[in-house]
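Recall from the previous lesson that a structure prediction takes nothing but the amino acid sequence as input. Here we apply that procedure to Short-chain dehydrogenase/reductase from Bradyrhizobium betae. The sequence below is the only information supplied.
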Amino acid sequence: MSKTTRGVALVTGASSGIGLATARALRRDGYRVFGTSRKPAANTSDGVTMLVCDVTDDASVQALVEDVVSRAGRIDLLVNNAGIGLLGAAEESSTAQAKALFDVNVFGVVRLTNAVLPVMRRQRAGRIVNLSSILGLIPAPYNALYASTKHALEGYSESLDHEVRTHGIRVVLVEPGATRTSFEENLTRADHPLAAYDAVRADAEKLMREIVETGDAVEVVADTVVKAANAATPRRRYTAGKVAMQVSLMRRFLPESFVDKGLRKYNKLPLEPTPPASSTAAAHQAS
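The prediction returns the following tokens.
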């Protein structure tokens, strides 16, 4: 297929960061690209048409898909990129906050996918690329709820792919590592912080800033999305960047105990649990 006939792409969360870089990369590759943002945004200089969509609202999602189809006649590629982060110990977030996170990161993907699938079934062709994360593969201390949304997205995407292949549709995952975006600046903080976690949470936030500052450029992820979108026989998962590849291989091939110790060391957590106060006192008396 020539670069002038790639098809029609819809990219959520395209006002900045990975979404914007992806929309631009797809446009350069020959797609007619529609991007979304929660608030009105100007069309990009690269020819990306921006539309408003709240991925947590069924009516907004349905209106978006109808608008794109009315303008372009079809949707060949859906890139589910919109998402938010949450930093804090799992215990520090209310169930309401957890639900709000899942409403964007998981159910937002479900809403867009459900709205686009009828279009792709009629076409007997389509590709859905879901932006996951290496935190969909490994534990993530002080990002437990965010990691849970990405683990959920992994299972959903792989299962859905089996369901829709007979209709000419494929679903694939792109798994970035740390990426230089404003993601850390826009993190949601836990709504019920506890003093017991203050020190380690502060260390976790510092570590996140450091890894984002030295992370991959957004173009690395965007190029991986283009690759996943155009592959004639797509893989289920595409890691984006060297660190993401290393983490994927580590999780797949190394012993669980080795991975556990490595993660605790990386996150500056003690390798052994702190003994109960009673045990400490008894040991002191015995000595």
